[in-house]
Amino acid sequence: MNFIEAFSWINIRFLLDGLWVTIMVAVLSIIFSFVIGGIAGLIRFMKVPFISAIVGVLIDIIRNLPLLLIIFFTYFALPQVGIRLSIFWSSVAALTIFESAMLSEIIRAGLNAVPKGQMEAGRSTGLTYGQTLWSIIFPQAFQKMLPPIVSQFISLIKDTSLAVIISLPELTHNAKIIYGQDTTAVLPMFAAMTFLYFIVCFLLSRVSKRLELKLQ
Q: Which residues form the ABC transmembrane type-1 domain (predicted)?
C-alpha cells in the first residue's frame, strides 16, 4: 500500500468514525467538567467552612494524578464496587474528573483576580452577594478565564487519545487498527491524525479568539 492508497474511502470513513467518537467524548466531558469545575471553583472562592477545604484536598489529589490512572480507575476499579460503565462512559467520566479539577483552579483564580473593591462596590448599591457575584464579578473574571479554559479544552481533546488504552474507538484507536493491518500505512495514518487533531483544535482556538474579542 502506497501513501495515496492508504487514504481509501474505507479508511477515511473509519478515521472519521473515530473522530466523531473523539468529538463526542470531548464535548460531553467539556460540558460536565465545566459544570462540576465551576461549582468546585466557586466553593473554593467563597471559602465555605470545611467544604472548601475538603474540595481543595480532592482537587489537589486529582490534579497530581496521571490521567491514565484515572481512566484505569473508572474502567477497571469502579466495577469492583458495583459501578459498571461502558468504555465510552468510562472515558467521559475519567476526563470529566480530571478536567473538573483543572477548571476549578482556573475559575477560582479568575474570580480572585477581580479586585475585591468590586464586590464591596456592588454590595454598597444594595445588591446581594449572589447578585454581585453574578452581575459584576463573574463577567470580569470570565474575560480572564477564557484563554486558559480554552487551552484546557484543547488539551482535553488531545487527551481523549489516552482512552485508546481501554480500546475506546476514537481517532487514535482507529488509526492504530488501520496501520496494524498494514505497516506501510503508519506514515499516512500519522499524517491523517495530525491533520484532523489540528483542524479540530485550530477551529476551537479561532472560536475562542472571536469570543474573546467580542467580550472586550
A: 19-208
